[in-house]
Amino acid sequence: LRQRYAAIRHMPSMTHDGQQVSLLLNAGLLIDLQHLDETGADGIGLYRTEIPFMVRSSYPDVATQTELYKKILDAADGRPVTFRTLDIGGDKTLPYFDAGEDENPAMGWRAIRIGLDRPLMLRQQLRAMILAAAGRELRVMFPMIATIAEFRAARALLDQELTRAEDRGEPLPDRVKVGAMLEVPSLMWQMPQLLARVDFLSVGSNDMMQFLFAWDRGSPRLSDRYDTLAPGALAFFDDLVRKARSASVPLTLCGEMAGRPLEAMALIGLGFRALSMSAGSIGPVKMMTRSLDVRQFRPLLDQTMHRPVETLRTVLRSYARDRGV
Ligand code: PEP
Ligand code: MG
C-alpha cells in the first residue's frame, strides 16, 4: 500500500472525472514541513501556531515569532500556508500564560476570545506574520469566530498592523488573505455578512461537530456515540457548500474527518474542493479522490444522506470497493 501511495505522490489530486481537489497538510512544528515533499501535499491548510508556543517555557517575542514564520514559509517554498492565530485556552495551556479555569473549557475563554481581550498578544503575532511574509502571500485565519463583530475586530487588528508596517517603511506581503474558521454553529446564520467579509473559510470540524452534537470531543465515553457523517452533519455541510459557492468564497475543511477516506469521499461528493489533514492521510485520501467519479457519486449521496448513517457508510464502502480503493 505504501508503494501505491508513493506512486501517486506526484500525480494530481483530481477526481476520476477531472475535479481538482486540493489536499493540504495540517502542521504545527517546523519538522512537520518535511512532510510537504514526502507526501506531495499542495500546501499547509492549517498551521496551528499555538503548538510552537506550547513547547516553549517563555513567551516568544516578535523577533522569535518572525523567524519561525519565515522558516515555515521558506520550507513551503511557494506553496500556500494558512496560519491560524493562537488557539490557546480550553485544553491547550501555555506554562507562561494563566488563562484561568472555566467549567466548560472548550466553550470558555479560548482562541480568538483571548486574542481580542489581550490584543497586544494577537497584534504581536500578526506583526510577526506580516514581517515574515514580506514579498510573499500572507494567509491568516482566526479560530472560534462566533459573531461578525469578532471577525471584524480581529481583521481590524490585522489592518492596524499592516498600516503600522507600511508607516515604518517595512516591506509588506504581496497579498493578504484573511479567513475565519467555522467552528461555532451560530455563524451558519450569519453567512451573507460573513461571506462578504472573508477571503476564505475553513471548517474546523473537530470543534464544529463538538458544538453541533453537544459532543465533548475528548470524552472517551462518547467517542463512538455520534458519527460525523450522520444526517445532521451532512445537511450542515451541504448547506454550507452551497452558500460558500454562491458567494465564490473558497472553502476548506481542516478537522480530523478530512483525513479519513470515507469521510473525505462524502465531503468531496458534497462539493468540498480543499481538505487539510495530517501527513499520513494524504496518500489514502488521494487514492480515494482519484478513483471517485463525482458526477456518478453525487446522486448516490443524495439518495442516502438522510438515511441512517449505517446505510450511508455501507453505500460509501461498497462504492469505494467497486472502484478498487
Ligand atoms: C478543528 O477544530 O477542527 C480544528 C482544526 O482545530 P483544532 O483541532 O486545533 O481545535
Ligand atoms: Mg478547533
UniProtKB/TrEMBL annotation:
Signal peptide: none annotated. It is found in: Cytoplasm. It comes from the Bacteria. Belongs to the PEP-utilizing enzyme family. This is phosphoenolpyruvate--protein phosphotransferase. It comes from Elstera cyanobacteriorum.
